[in-house]
Amino acid sequence: MTRHQRHLLHRLSELERAVDRISRSIEKIEVATIVREPSSGVAVDAYDGLRRQIVAAAGERIAHLHQLARFAEAVGAERPSAELASLVDEWLVQAGLERVTDPHEHDYFDVLGGTGSRLRVLRPGYRDRVTGRPVVMGQAERVEPAATGGQREGVR
Question: Are 121 and 151 in contact (CB under 8 A)?
């Protein structure tokens, strides 16, 4: 890299820092405007957004309390394991959360070690059905083909 290129890169990074400082200053000015002039259009929009978030949070709390109550009922049922499994599956669907049990989907598993050409799932992973992002990583281990013991496995 030439001296001129290094100089240009240095100037570019200085410009990036300056733009970042300016952006933060603009955000501070907008916040001050909202606080000092609550009737301005920006303030009205901000307060409306805040109000909507509060209403949504209250709704989420009620939904969570409902889930806890149903969970308590399922634990007290005559066959709690079957009842709980059904209830948890229902919650996963409602939340848009998918259980990942295929070890070929390597983005959702941490391989903990072992030797062999196959993977055995120790714990399933979970992903957001909408975004495809992992929510909880699953765990898998490498094993020899005969050592899988009927658990979900795959060649890697």
Answer: yes
Taking only the tens place, the pLDDT of each residue in 58-91 is 888 888 777 777 777 777 777 778 778 888 888 8
Burial annotation 90-126 (CB, 10 A radius, 16+ → b, else e): eeeeeeeebebebbeeeebbeeeeeebebbbbbebbb
Q: Which residue has the tokens 């281990």?
A: 141
Tell me the two tokens of residue 3.
């001296």
H helix runs in the chain, sequence order: 3-36, 41-76, 80-95
User: pLDDT tier at 132 (50, 70, 90 boundaries)?
Assistant: very high
